[in-house]
Amino acid sequence: MVFFSITCILLSLLVASLSHASPVSREFSSSGLSLPSLDSKSWLCRLVHTTRAQKLCLREESTAISVNTPLGAAQGVVNVSGVSRFAAKYASAKRWSPSTVVTAWALPNGSTNVSALPLMCPQPFVDNSTFTEDCMSMILHVPTTLHADSCVPTLMWVHGGSFMVGSATNPGLDGSALALATDSIVAVIQYRLGALGFVAPNNQTNLGLGDVVNALKFLTTVLPSFGGDPSKITVAGQSSGANLIRALLAVPSAQSLFQSAILQSDPMDYGFLSSFDQVQLQQFFVSNLGCTATDLACLNALTADNIVNGAGLWQFNSSVSVVPAATQAAPMRVVDDGTFITSTLDSTSPFPRVSKPILLSNVLHEGGYTIYRSFSSPVPETEYVAIVNASFGETRYETLVGSQSYAVETAQNDDYRPQLQVLATDSIWQCATWTFARNWVSNGGTAYVGLYSLGASYPGNSAVSFCTEPGVVCHQDDIEIVFGTALDPDSAQSALIIEMQARYKSFLYSGNPNADDSSFANWEAAGASDVNAIMLGSTGDAPVGACTPSFWGQSVAYDYQVFDI
Ligand SMILES: *[C@@H]1O[C@H](CO)[C@@H](O)[C@H](O)[C@H]1NC(C)=O
Ligand SMILES: *[C@@H]1O[C@H](CO)[C@@H](O)[C@H](O)[C@H]1NC(C)=O
Ligand SMILES: *[C@@H]1O[C@H](CO)[C@@H](O)[C@H](O)[C@H]1NC(C)=O
Ligand SMILES: *[C@@H]1O[C@H](CO)[C@@H](O)[C@H](O)[C@H]1NC(C)=O
Ligand SMILES: *[C@@H]1O[C@H](CO)[C@@H](O)[C@H](O)[C@H]1NC(C)=O
Ligand SMILES: *[C@@H]1O[C@H](CO)[C@@H](O)[C@H](O)[C@H]1NC(C)=O
Ligand SMILES: *[C@@H]1O[C@H](CO)[C@@H](O)[C@H](O)[C@H]1NC(C)=O
Q1: Of 61, 102, 510, 565, which shows the fewest CB atoms inside 10 Å?
Q2: Given CA atoms 338, 344, 350, 356 in this order, what sign does their dihedral have?
Q3: Where residue 53 sits, what CATH number does that domain have?
Q4: Counting atoms of ligand 5 from 1, which one is nearest the CA of 304?
Q5: Which residue segment(s) compose the domain that 450 sits in?
C-alpha cells in the first residue's frame, strides 16, 4: 500500500529554474576599518579582517568579480542587480570516503567558466551529463554593497529531496533576493546524496553530513573576505535538508561552526537510523551492487550512473521491506553512530543541554501532496481504517481512530482523505516538530514555532489539484516565500515574503525573529508545554489539534519510538 511516499519531492525537483532580471553591474566600495564596537562578536570579526588583507574589486566594464580570499582569488559574476554570485567547490572526496575541505579556491568540477552553475550530485531521474561526483560545491550570493568590514551574518541553506535528489540549482533557490532583504550572505550548498552519501560498502557512515560540516568550515575561512562574520552563521533547510540540520545539532564537533538554525518542514517522525539498522541496510545495498564490499577494483569501476540508477534506486524503493525503520520516504539517511552524532535528539534518549536559538516551521498541509497523489478518488471508511491499520500497526491504529482528530464517523461524503491528510501532517511533521520544540526548550534552548497558512505553489505541486485549492499549503510551498522567488506573487504572498525575510533578517542578526522596530505580530518563544506556534500568512495562534503534549509521543508513539531508533 502506497501511503507516506515522497514522490512529490522527486517530481517537483525536476522542473526548470526560474529566471531573473538581467544583471546590472555595481561597484564595490572598500571602506576603511571602523573602530571596534562594544559588541564582542563584531570586534572579533573586525580583528579577523585586519589580519587578512582582502579587497573586493570590480573589473572595469565587466560583470566578472574577483575577491581575494585566504584560499586565493574567488571569481564570480554579478547575478541580479545588487548581488553577485560565486560558484565554488568547498570540498573533495574519493568515492565513499570522508570529504576534506579544499585548500585553494576553485570553481566546481574543475570548470573555468565563472558564469557556470555547479553540476548536481549524482542522483536518479536526471540526465547523467548534469551531475558529477565532484559535486561538493556551493553558490554564494553576496550583496554588492558589502565590504571588507561589513561583518554581516550568513544563511547557509541545505536543500531537501529525501537525501536522494536535489541541488543548489533547484527551482526557487536563487538566494539573491533573500541576501538583499536580510542584508546577509546566502550560501546554498550541495552534499553527497543517496548511496554515495549515506550507504557506503566500506562501513563509512554520515558522509553527506560530513560534507555539510565541511561546507561550514569552508565558509568560516572565506566569509571575512566577502564581508561576512564567520561567527554569525545560521544553518537553514527544508524537509530532509532540515533533517540534516537537526543531525548537525547532534554533532558536538560542529557546534562552534554555527550560531543558530532554521528547520522548515523536517519529517521528524523518522528519527536517525540506528547503527544496527544501518549495518543491515548496508549489507542489503552491497548484495545488490554486483561487487563485494572489499573489492575496490570492482567498486571503483562502477560509474556514478550505475550506482544511483542501479543499486541506489533499488535501495530507495526496497529498504523498508528489509528494515522497517528505514521508511519508504528516506531510507538512506544519517545514522546515530555514537561518535560523530552522539544523540538522537528525540524522545527516546536523554536530551543534552542545548543553547542555540532555533526556528521551526511547518506548512498547513504537509501531507497534502502525498495523500491526494496516492488516492485520486474518495477514500471510504473501510479503506480508511485499513490504511491507518497498515500504516501505524494495530496498537496505534486503535488509539488513532478512537481519537477525536482522526475518528471514523466524521467524514463528509464518505471521503476520509481529509483525515488521512491531517494524520500524515501531524504524525510525520507537525506534532513531531512540536514535541521536538518542547524538548529543546525543556533542555535550555530557545525555539520559535510557526505554521504557514499561505504559501507559493512549488513547481511540480500543481500536479495534485488539492495543492492548488485556495487556502491549501503543501510541502515545499514555503520555499519560494522565504527566498522571495515566487513567480507573480499576489499581495498577500508579497506581504508574507516581506514579513518572513524581515523575521529571518532579525533571526540571523540576533537569534530572535522579532525585530526591535517590528510592525509584525509578536512571535513568542515556545514554552515547555505550549509551543506558542503562530500562523505565518494569517493572524493568531496555530490550532493545536492533536499536537498536545499528551497525545503524539505519549498516547501514540512516533515511528522513532516504535522502532526504538
Ligand atoms: C559559461 O556558462 C554559462 C552559464 O551556463 C553559459 O551560458 C556560457 O555559454 C558558458 N561559457 C562558456 C565559454 O562555456
Ligand atoms: C567534471 O570533471 C571531470 C574531470 O575533469 C570531467 O571528466 C567531466 O566531464 C566533468 N563533468 C561535466 C559534466 O562537465
Ligand atoms: C542568478 O543565479 C541563479 C542561481 O543561483 C540563476 O538561477 C539565475 O538565473 C541567475 N540570474 C541571472 C539574471 O543570471
Ligand atoms: C564492516 O564492519 C563489519 C563488522 O562490523 C566487518 O565485518 C566488515 O569487514 C567491515 N567491512 C569493511 C569493508 O571494512
Ligand atoms: C550516461 O547515460 C548514457 C545513456 O544512458 C550512458 O550511455 C552513459 O554510459 C552514462 N554515462 C555515465 C558516465 O554513466
Ligand atoms: C525498484 O527499483 C528497481 C531498480 O531500478 C526497479 O527495477 C524496480 O522495479 C523498483 N521497484 C519498485 C517497486 O518500484
Ligand atoms: C489490522 O492489521 C492486522 C495485521 O495485518 C490484522 O490482523 C487486523 O485484523 C487488522 N485490524 C483491523 C481492525 O483491520
Answers
A1: 61
A2: positive
A3: 3.40.50.1820
A4: 14
A5: 6-562
